[in-house]
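Exercise 7. Predict the joint structure of the components listed below.
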Amino acid sequence: MTRRQNRNLIRIVLSFALLITASALPLSGIFRLTACLAAYLITGYDVILEAVRKIFRGQLFDEQFLMAIATIGAFVLNEYSEAVAVMLFYQVGEWFQSIAVGKSRKSIASLMDIRPDTATVIRMGERVTVSPEEVQKGEIIEIQPGERTPLDGVIILGETSVNTSALTGESLPVDLKTGDRIISGSINLTGTVRVQVESEYEFSTVNRILELVENASAKKARIEGFITRFSRVYTPIVVSLAVLIAFLPPLIFSLPFSEWIQRALIFLVVSCPCALVVSVPLSFFGGIGRASKSGILIKSSSDLEMLSKIKTMVFDKTGTLTKGAFSVRRVVSAKNDEAEVMKYAYLAERHSGHPIAKSICASYETQESLPESANVTEKSGLGVRAEISGAVILAGNEKLLSQFGIACVSPPDAYGAVVHIAKDGEYLGFIEVTDEIKPKAKISVQKLKTLGIAKTVLLTGDRREAAIRVKDETGIDEMLSELLPQDKLTAVEALIEHSSPIAFVGDGINDAPALTRADTGIAMGTMGSDAAIEAADVVLMDDSIEKLSEALKIAKKTMHIVRENIIITLGVKIAVMLLGAAGFANMWLAVFADVGVLIIAILNAMRTLVYNTKKAA
Amino acid sequence: MKKVFMMEDLDCANCALKMETAIGKIPGVISASVNFITQKLTLEAEDSAFDEILKKARKEIKKVDSACRVIVK
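Solution:
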């Protein structure tokens, strides 16, 4: 509790005690008025002061102003204890609201409690403890077990395992050794390591995440914009209605003024749109905070709103549905000598940076001392030509071999990438390399179906056979294969025209335009990749595809709670306003409809934060 | 120049909205946002008149809720 909250609580208790005493004692006339007035002022003096201030500034019809008028009105009508009680009730409500808001703020802050406080930097051989902002790029920091990694860097000494759960939601520790990258915000578990800092704090992973989440509410959701606009027209409408209620019936039907003015006051007290204005952004904030706890970064409320509406989900293949890591599936030799095929493939490709070449070389083991290759030329999209001990080796696809006049065909049952090998114009055989499908891809796609995703589409630059296999094994509905990077964008645009709203899920490599263009761009496995974080609306911190359904669930739950809050608050308010106008509601009910509903809405909004996606089917 | 300020005792969301609107209308302000949940004022304004504008912004805040303060380090 803050000092202000403490003080207000004491005032409420004092005033309440005084009111009880005054009612219990047989006081009358001026004594009763004095006691009640004292109780009233103890709890309500600030409201009256604020109301007077507002009058001088010409800001009528503020909450405080309305409360002051309503309660002073009650005094005038000789209803002393009612006046005190209404003011008390109002203050109790305000107090609860302040506590509830404080609690919500705290629990959101604790979700984002990944900010490192200090860094131990090695300067001139000494350990110096400084704040992470003061560490320069290139400096060496030391991280002890139990500490939070303050900055991104590369381990230069020692090995350890780290917990990245605050960033990725993944609780399994990751083992790191010298030469590995360590990400800021992860917790060092086992060993002391020295790390060379790669970027300053401002550009570190942890700072970027914090900024992203804290600024998430800046880009407002459509429903939030609606609430803002609504509350702007709502207040003047309600105030004019109140004026009509106060004066029309007495003037036309010569009914008593006091009665109708009180009805108008009740009407006005109910009218504050605070519950709506608070609970809607609070729900969004809670949802975004909840998602970040699972390693899902949602960039803004409007992105969360859009995510909840997605009907079509488009997947990039490599790195999204598949692991993005190739492995050799089989080696087939034309002459029954698989070792020879592998050997020449290795010799020709061992200096290539292509992922397929790398995977072939990684799976080749030999004790032999091998000759160096010479005159290596890599032909993009085709393969490699190299000379080894005077022999010309070709390693590549059919197109490459046919350029050199060698006929070959890929086997019909191949679904991976096929690398054909030829030596001095003679065909040796081929190696098939495949990209494994992620183990949870199929179940994740099925889960999406139960979450309202009507259509799933696979987009890939890969061969048709490879695409068909992934499509069939994961249960995706449609596919488009052999696309160039720019074709992916065109395909996404075509889908947007036919079946909006769509989400594009990619790993951020080559597909930034599609990520930007889709209604929701979801980048995955992109910890540390600026381009993807920039282009996407939703970022999955690790590459686990099952996070997709979790993200959808959180988005849908949040929107559900937002709608619930709108319906509850408006429903209660309109009902009490109608009752008030008809003379069936008293000031108690009015204060409940204002402050009580506000508290209910806040508590409801906080449900987003504790939403358990595992329990909910 | 864009600066973020912490706020204290910002107790009502509707007030935050009113403050945001009022500050946005101060001449020289490029953008202003009052975040009720994080209790932060983000003010983007012309460099030359920044302090002057901040003063006016604080006045607007006081007008809406006299108990609410902006913490300037």
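Discussion. The two ends of chain A are 37 Å apart (CA to CA).
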